Amino acid sequence: xxxxxxxxxxxxxxxxxxxxxxxxxxxxxxxxxxxxxxxxxxxxxxxxxxxxxxxxxxxxxxxxxxxxxxxxxxxxxxxxxxxxxxxxxxxxxxxxxxxxxxxxxxxxxxxxxxxxxxxxxxxxxxxxxxxxxxxxxxxxxxxxxxxxxxxxxxxxxxxxxxxxxxxxxxxxxxxxxxxxxx
Length: 182
Known about the structure:
Layout: E1 2-9, E2 13-15, H1 22-25, H2 37-42, E3 44-50, H3 51-59, E4 74-77, E5 90-93, H4 97-108, E6 112-117, H5 119-127, E7 133-139, E8 147-148, E9 154-164, E10 167-177
Parallel strand pairs: 1-6, 1-7, 3-4, 3-6, 4-5
Antiparallel strand pairs: 2-8, 7-10, 9-10
């Protein structure tokens, strides 16, 4: 199952216009709660992210002061050449997301796949019919503009919701394009 597990502001942005996550990092979370990160990661066998997310991770010390934060094979979708991280299983790809999904599925075995970010990449997987769930934690902050959560017209089915610290978290099953767009 491919899951877009992320956090957003109340007005639907995953990052500020300058890609800052300061709004997120100052929020009180509940790591062991119903939608806790550690429990989620225990089920993940492979991950995929866009180049902006990857570059944000690198710009915050990974590869210099901090080790790569993920133990699973991680694909980075980018049309540019980007530096790797020594000792990390980071794989670069571009173009169609379907072969990447197949490679992730092969690497993950029976474990879930995590779409780290961003919203446009999640949209590309949704366009290909490969996005199964969206798990989103909504923070009590608005930005007014920034990187959108998921810039697509999709029908979703609410599966569950809970509070975790400052966040309201929900899990949605992706039904597909909006009914009126089919």
